[in-house]
Write the structure tokens for this entry.
Amino acid sequence: MRIVVLVSGTGSNLQAVIDAVQSGELPVEIAAVGADRPGTYGVERSAAAGIPTFEVDFKDYPDRAEWNAALTEAVAAYSPDVVVSSGFMRIVSPAFIDAFRGRYLNTHPALLPAFPGAHGVHDALAYGVKVTGCTVHWADAGVDTGPIIAQEAVDIEPEDTEDTLHERIKVVERRLLVATLRQLALAPALPN
Ligand code: GRF
């Protein structure tokens, strides 16, 4: 199974995938890692691991449609079986979703459909729920919507801040992402 991973930031989920591939635990080929802006640590980590990288900088394009077209082309060039949004903080267009329909995987730091969007950890904490968690799902054209593949709960502690809670969620999220990719790689056919 060939994957392309998209990142916007530090890429600790990506690093868990890289580590699992390198240790032989995850029978997946990381064909490339792409980012929506220059200078992400996620791209730096990938380059250090010898993985091809690309950047489709949102600021280089006159509008979202052109950026989306360029991103779609850049990802398609690596012929991935699965595209993983791993902390990729941009909404992609329906054209991108169509190009990778049923093959675009997203991880989200909340128990969807609760707390979608860019501030899922903050929003769960602000609401006062006692349990949150993370979700791995097939992404459609909505914001953190699409069929759920796996979820795991994380308790919120009274003393939690957004940072401490997000760090605990990410420990679980990394494991869940690797386990889900492993399950998909070993399955005879990808679900769609
Ligand atoms: C993850 O919690 C992801 O779900 C969210 O942003 C975080 C990215 O972390 N959208 P990292 O870049 O993998 O460290």
Remarks:
- The mean pLDDT is 95.
